[in-house]
Write a structure and sequence with these properties.
- It is a single chain.
- The chain has about 220 residues and is mostly helical.
- Helix content is about 55%, strand content about 5%.
- α3 (about 75-85) packs antiparallel against α6, α6 (about 125-135) packs across α7 and α8 (about 165-180) packs antiparallel against α9.
- The chain is elongated, with a radius of gyration of 22 Å.
- The termini are far apart.
């Protein structure tokens, strides 16, 4: 014989006072991030929330350009999420990188391509992974550096996207070496010109310092 349905009155149902705000913030985060697998992403979201870790959440919605596929995978916004999660560690275990990548519902083949290109072992230097991720977003070395500056800068969106020269030099030199076709002397000459400008800007490199070069080496 089926059990009778239990009836509750409003006074018996206690809603945790923090629940509405948690659900509200979760909904906003899901809308901004637009994960392909909401359940998988939600599990990662609440796991990070409970541990006090950086959340797998974009800062804003990224609207794809007309020429882009909506399922293209890695985006500047998602790469920035990964940077917030992994950069504090400096060196990251590949297993953890794969886990964070999966949490953002990104294609495994994209990460596999990055790891193969960098010829990494079980441990990876995050800034090198970031550089290679930017190279997947940009069609050229300079456009890759633009993405890197916009991800790393503390300037507001749409600003000068300033980064320290040391950071710019490291990423640029690394990507130039991965390319394999850029003479070392050209890399050094280019960075020398950038440093001269950075020295007049409290050691910071601005987008206009390399995107408006009259004669770009790459």
């Amino acid at each position: 014989m089926p059990l009778p349905e239990t009836m509750f009155c409003a006074q018996q149902i206690k809603i945790p006072p923090e629940l509405p705000d948690i659900l509200k913030q979760f909904t906003k985060a899901a809308i901004r991030t637009q994960p392909h697998d909401v359940l998988q992403w939600a599990a990662a979201y609440f796991s990070a929330l409970s541990k006090g870790e950086p959340l797998p959440v974009k800062e804003r919605i990224e609207m794809p350009l007309a020429a882009e596929k909506t399922d293209a995978g890695l985006t500047p916004g998602l790469l920035k999420v990964l940077h917030k999660q992994l950069s504090p560690k400096g060196t990251v275990n590949v297993a953890e990188l794969k886990e964070k990548w999966k949490h953002l519902c990104l294609p495994e083949e994209q990460l596999k391509a990055i790891l193969q290109l960098g010829d990494f072992g079980e441990e990876v230097e995050w800034m090198k992974v970031l550089a290679l991720g930017c190279s997947m977003l940009g069609g050229s070395l300079l456009s890759s550096m633009k993405h890197a500056c916009e991800i790393l800068t503390r300037d507001p969106e749409g600003g000068a996207a300033r980064v320290p020269f040391e950071t710019f030099s490291f990423l640029y030199s690394y990507l130039a070496s991965i390319d394999g076709e850029i003479p070392e002397e050209k890399t050094e000459a280019f960075l020398h010109g950038i440093k001269e400008q950075a020295d007049q800007q409290t050691g910071m490199v601005l987008l206009r310092n390399f995107l408006t070069q009259p004669s770009r080496p790459f």
